[in-house]
Specification:
single chain, about 400 residues, alpha/beta, ten-stranded mixed sheet, eight-stranded mixed sheet, 11 helices
Length: about 400
């Protein structure tokens, strides 16, 4: 690929595609509410929208602008698959719990599609997905994986390497194909959810940095850098990988991932169904298309050190992603238009941590989403709404903060 003169380096495609949003005010005066949602990315937006729908008094705030951190960096492949395959997850947590986790993720994909249908300006596209076997050994394992997923009622099938090559032209040793997947503009989704929550009475603030909290007899008090306080029955911490330092939680490890978006293309060759594509190699590459006919490809994950070190790798990681795209689609000539990096947190079993811990009463967390963030965000919004309504979610133990 040749580098065009209009390359946007370090800028996620979604920020340019959506433009700047209207600024929300900074919280300047102390207030109170039922629930304060702390972090206004896609997770916080889903939680705020869900709680506002229940009629709760909600305050949602972010230290930056809403959705511009991990959410804007997401390539937003909507899949039920978890970073650990079904059979591997079963070896970690038991077959029954693994099956439940996969079924809940599948339900979340369907639920997200229904949710987006009710939001103006949010175009959720249903897609199929293709999980490529990178080696012969992976192919044998993924054939067993296909059978295990089919036994759960998931609509999957195994394609031989000849089937994949004949249908798509992708090099592989076979692939699992699934009919249940999708794609969405994560930043547009976040803004639409926050706007709807606000229309239902939620109060929405930006540039509001929480510098600490204290316990109250019937809840918590957050203190902001500007001197305001928020008293609430619950505080939902949905800050992504930027977990405040005063919470001593060791539940996930941080990774950096890299992505690019091509210039617009006239077509995608044999990849005409525009399914989501990812592969069994670890770290893996993943790709999809966009509504305006670009290709998004990501991968090249490395352990996170800091944002400066992460971003210094963008040029080299871009070259690797361009080479991988050329291998997968040799007849497509595409120029890179945008390239960026993002950070995500991953747990050892690939499942998020959702709920509370005894030493931080009144605080509910939604952390450690790995490569399946938006799907897990939907699950978190349902579970945390149950917590805030005084009910224990049925799957609380599966995603417990203390299961490690």
């Amino acid at each position: 690929m040749s580098q065009p003169t209009n390359l946007h380096s370090g800028v996620p495609f979604w920020l340019v595609d959506n433009g700047l949003a209207a600024a929300q005010p900074t919280l300047a005066q102390s207030t109170s509410c039922d629930v304060v949602v702390w972090g206004a990315g896609v997770t916080g937006a889903l939680v705020a929208d869900r709680l506002a729908r229940e009629g709760l008094d909600v305050v949602v705030l972010d230290r930056h602008e809403s959705g511009i951190a991990s959410t804007a960096a997401s390539t937003a492949l909507i899949q039920y698959e978890i970073d650990l395959e079904l059979l591997e997850l079963g070896a970690h947590i038991g077959d029954d719990d693994a099956a439940r986790a996969y079924q809940m993720s599948a339900d979340a994909v369907r639920q997200l599609g229904q949710l987006c249908a009710g939001l103006d300006g949010v175009d959720f596209q249903s897609r199929s997905s293709l999980y490529l076997a990178s080696t012969r050994r992976d192919a044998a394992r993924l054939q067993r994986e296909t059978d295990a997923r089919a036994a759960l009622g998931l609509d999957v099938a195994w394609l031989s390497r000849e089937d994949v090559a004949g249908r798509y032209g992708f090099p592989s040793h076979g692939a699992v194909t699934s009919t249940l997947a999708g794609e969405v503009d994560a930043l547009a989704l976040t803004r639409a959810l926050l706007a709807r929550a606000a229309s239902r009475g939620a109060r929405w603030y930006e540039q509001t940095h929480v510098r600490g909290y204290e316990e109250l007899p019937n809840g918590v008090r957050l203190r902001t850098r500007h001197g305001a306080t928020i008293d609430a029955r619950f505080a939902v911490c949905a800050t992504g990988y930027e977990l405040p330092s005063y919470f001593e939680l060791d539940v996930a490890t941080l990774h950096s991932t890299y992505a690019l978006a091509t210039e617009r293309l006239p077509g995608f060759g044999p990849w005409d169904d525009r399914c989501l594509v990812w592969e069994s190699a670890r770290p893996y590459s993943y790709m999809r298309t966009t509504a305006d006919r670009r290709i998004l490809i990501g991968g090249g994950d490395v352990p996170f050190q800091n944002a400066i070190a992460r971003d210094l790798l963008i040029p080299r990681k871009t070259q690797q992603l361009e080479a991988r795209l050329q291998t997968l689609l040799p007849d497509i000539r595409a120029e890179t238009a945008f390239r960026w990096a993002g950070t995500f947190a991953e747990t050892e079993d690939g499942l998020p941590c959702i709920g509370g811990v005894d030493r931080y009463p009144g605080i509910l967390f939604a952390l450690g989403y790995g490569g399946n963030g938006i799907t897990f965000s939907v699950i978190a919004s349902e579970m945390l709404a149950e917590h805030c309504l005084g009910r224990t979610p049925e799957a609380a133990a599966l995603y417990s903060m203390t299961r490690f």
